[in-house]
Each structure stands twice: as structure tokens, then as C-alpha cells.
Amino acid sequence: MPRGAEFPEEEELVVCTIKSVKNFGAFVSLEEYQAKEGFIHVTEIASGWVKRMSDFVREGQRVVCKVLKVDQAKGHVDLSLKKVNDHQKREKIQVWKNEQKSEKLMEFVAQRLETTVDACYEEFGDALVDKYGSMYAAFEAAAGSSKRLKADGFDGKWLKVFMAVATENVTPSTVEIAGLVEMNCPVSNGVVHIRAALKEAEKTESENVKIQYIGAPKYRIVVLADDYKTAEEDMKLASDRAIAYIKSKGGDGKFSRKEQQ
After folding, report:
1. Residue 172 pLDDT > 90
2. Bridge-based pairing state of the strands 76-80 and 36-41
3. What is the rounded (10 degree) CA torsion for 80, 1, 260, 215?
4. What CATH number did the domain enclosing 68 receive?
5. Looking at per-residue confidence, does 50 or 144 come out higher?
6. Pair 31, 94 in one domain
7. Which of 72, 73, 180, 206 has the fewest Cβ atoms nearer than 10 Å?
8. Where residue 252 sits, what CATH number does that domain have?
9. What is the pLDDT of residue 261?
10. Do 101 and 156 fall into the same domain?
């Protein structure tokens, strides 16, 4: 959800609170859109026949719905409850909670900088969201590595404050993936070249790439990152560097991904 957006987009998942329940459907408030009203028709409540609405929804209940249609001129938002599965619901609720927390953290940042939240977004917040996908992800990145934001090109007097708020309030989530690189180098000092190639693999900006010795010619690459996309990028960079190096010394190498941990 773009910050400040007045209405959701079609197909978007939204967090809602049931305001009133009728025989023909339920009226809800959209928590992320200034409590604008939405409507779930009885046919969009559940897949089967709905005999009693109270069996599925109740006033005050928080639900996750999919947006079917938006009429901004009339202020109508048609929603579906049945088109959201349990996994999507859990994921969306967590994202929503993270968004709420990140807004509070941005208030802390603004207070320490003696400015407003809107000014913070204008100066650096929007750029952080563009880079990391969400403000909470930016806070997680800052909490996870003291060098991450600077390495990604961010700088300014705000950065120290942002880092401090992040480390004080956010426990970064991490994922771990692993892969195998197999190398040989049938030349003089081949073992030395392999060791140097493995050191090349560890030279990533994330500082979260480690090599585990399984036994020649196989070596395990382990990557920790904030998310799988970043982890996969770091994994590819590490394996490519190792293989390129060993080939430059007359050897050969290949990489294979193991199942995500």
C-alpha cells in the first residue's frame, strides 16, 4: 500500500474490521485507508452456502479481504473474504503489524531529528521504501548490519539516528540458504588457489557469507540474509567469484543449490 493512498487497488489484500453484519453481507472499515468503508456481499463470505452470517463473521472481528472493485467517485469498495486463504491472511496481518510499528519508529526518528514524519519521508523515507520494499524492511536492514544502508548508497545526518532507532527497537529476521561449490585445480599450488578462491567467495558486502569445509573437492557456502531474494543474490555472487577465480588459475568449478533451509 503506497503511503497516503486514499483507496486500495483491485486484487490488493486489505485488513478490515467488521462494523455491521446483515443478511445480505457485511460492512467493514479498511484499516489501512483512513477507515474507509467496504462491503462484503454474502456470496463473497464463504465458498459454500451461507445460512447464518454469524457463523462466519461478527462485529468487531478483524479479517483480511481481497479487493474486487473500487469506485472512487462513489466511495465504494467491494471485497471478498472467501478468496483469501489462511497463509495470505497470516502474511498480510504480519505485514500490517510491521507497517504500524514502522510508523511509530518513524515518529521516534522524527522526534530525535526535531522534524516531522512527512519531512522524514520526503528526505529519505520514500527512497528507503523504494530500495527495501517497505519501511519496516529498511529498519530490519539497519538493525541487521551497521554498514548495510551506507553500502546501499544512503547517507546524511539522519542515518545515525535511523540506525539507533532500528537497533533499539527491531530484531532483524533472517533466512539461511546453502549451496555446494565443487572445485579442482590440477596445477602447481592448486590447493593454494582453491583456498584463495574460497576467500573470494566470502568477499560480499553483506558480510554474511561463510564457507564450510566438507572435504575436497566439495565446499559448502552458507548465506544469511534478511530475505530469500537477497540471500540468493549473495549466493550467486559468492559462487561466481569463486569459480571465476579458480578458472583464472587453470582450474575448474561448478555450483549446485541445496534445498533452502
Report:
1. no
2. parallel
3. 180
4. 2.40.50.140
5. 50
6. no
7. 73
8. 3.30.70.1130
9. 39
10. yes
Query: pLDDT for 88-122, tens place per residue?
Result: 999 899 889 999 999 999 999 999 999 999 999 99
Q: What is the pLDDT of residue 162?
A: 97
Q: Is residue 1 part of a domain?
A: no
Residues 92 and 123 in one domain: yes
Q: Express each pLDDT in 215-238 by its tens digit.
A: 778 898 888 887 767 888 888 999
Report the C-alpha gap between 104 and 161 in whole angstroms: 14
Last residue of one domain, picked from the residues 169, 188, 220 = 169
- pLDDT computed for residue 227 by the predictor: 72
